[in-house]
User: Fold these one by one.
Assistant:
Number 1:
Amino acid sequence: MGQYRMIDGLTYELTRKKVKNLNLRVRWDGTLGVSAPKRVPLREIDRFVASKREWILKARSRLTGENPEEDRDKYTDEACLAFFQPVSDRIYPLFREICPEKPQLRVRWMKSRWGVCHVGKNRITLNKRLMDQPLEALEYVVLHEYVHFLHPNHQSGFHQMMASLMPDYKARRKLLR
């Protein structure tokens, strides 16, 4: 459990973690969460939150009237798989040597992730919420998960491979924010 703080009319929950950067999250219910390295002074964290005020208000307005809990049943698993599978089928040939057997594709509703790669189970799980995102964003997420079969983390090798296979991957990733 974190510490609650208020700055410029914004209340946020501060959690100190082993992270490199300040991270701000507007949760589905509109509350704010900030994770920060232990060494960063409180005044700097408050300044960071205040500087993101416009972005926070826009993110909250996008959430207005939307209840993510209700969205869970918006799309069936079958509808999601029917939409996602062709994208996976187009990307899979790039990874055939690494994954001789095509990974199983699953879908589920997730709050904080767009996709998950289970290398040991040869499985990719995609967030059902991708149905509401542009096709370019879906292609990015599917490729991202396939690249994890080679690079389990997000270090330089991962980003180099993403850039070589999808030169505009950073722009596509921004579509999801």
Number 2:
Amino acid sequence: MLKKDSRQKRAKKTRARIRLLGVNRLCVHRTPRHIYAQLIAPDGCRVVASASTLEVEVRQQIKNAGNVAAATVVGRIIADRARKIGISKVAFDRSGFKFHGRVKALADAARENGMEF
């Protein structure tokens, strides 16, 4: 099995458990150059809020997009956007990635700015 297939299999199992909870999902995706965060509704049909290193607002605050500092900024921004629309409790969906490095930095920044998961 390829590395990507294994990751997607882990993500699928996690999403099945999150679906049973019936709460909003903070979904994280990372590439070598960027990191993306989406707040997805409990039904899974719509994105409520999003943030990524591609946005102008984030680009102004970071030097490089593929590091822990950039992930921290994205985590802070997604937490602020969630708070503005009245969402504080979410389930963290790491998309099968290890909870380490940039994924962990994004999660910690979101927690520090008021999100609970």
Number 3:
Amino acid sequence: MSPGTRKRPSAAFFAAAAAFTLAAATLLFAQSDTGDYAQRNLGSLAQPVMPDLNASAKYSVGSYPLYWPELEAGEGRELVTGYCNACHSPRYILMQPPLTHDQWAAEVTKMVKTFGIPIPESDQTVIINYLTAHYSLETRKR
């Protein structure tokens, strides 16, 4: 074969590509036909049919309540609630291990510099002091 010529794909290549495409389309259609990808069931969960155990009973379904834990009372709690709850719940603060003053300062600095939370310097100090006063190794309730 000369350097400027290309070898044309064989008919077997095209047949194999067509067979693969047909197999993939058949598989997707089969999944669609069983309802896995149908638009009709988006956002719904199939509930089992329950026997009528008590015809006079009344049942209702509501959303699952999500209770946020309360932070300890003290100066700075409102600032923590105001700034921190913009991105996460108080539970995220309580999930942290007990941290020292410098570690809490690093966390607050990370929130400001890395995540862009606009907390003034004076409020940062109050927040760090609050977190240290209530969630450090010496002060954390067990």
Number 4:
Amino acid sequence: MKKSLILLALLAIPVYAYVNDALSFAHEAALPYVKKGFSVREDAWGGDLGVKDQQAVTAQLFKGNEYWFCLGTDVRGAVLTIHIYDSKGKLAEAESWQKGRFAGARVVPAKTGTYYAIITVEKSPEERTGWAVVYAYK
């Protein structure tokens, strides 16, 4: 039993490390918006995905605010995208971009509610690619 717990703990360490590294890149992607007066929320999401896999994360957004969702990975050569949808599945972003290991999407909600950020690993040299998302508002 103890050996299995130790092995499980050791296997979990690399996942945590690369999500932590990806979080640094997500914050780096958000930096231009911070300079424009946006505040980065403490909320962050992360994980790892295979190529062409997707992950949805939810956020409560408020009408009257503007948001930037910023995605990053520490995997050199990986291409990830992020797109924001409303609760009816309609694309809600005003704009999005992707450059190298970074991506972003801006949304100005038409109404207060739950929105979904869909993260996709489009390509990667790794079998699993760690990613993280932060969001900023003003």
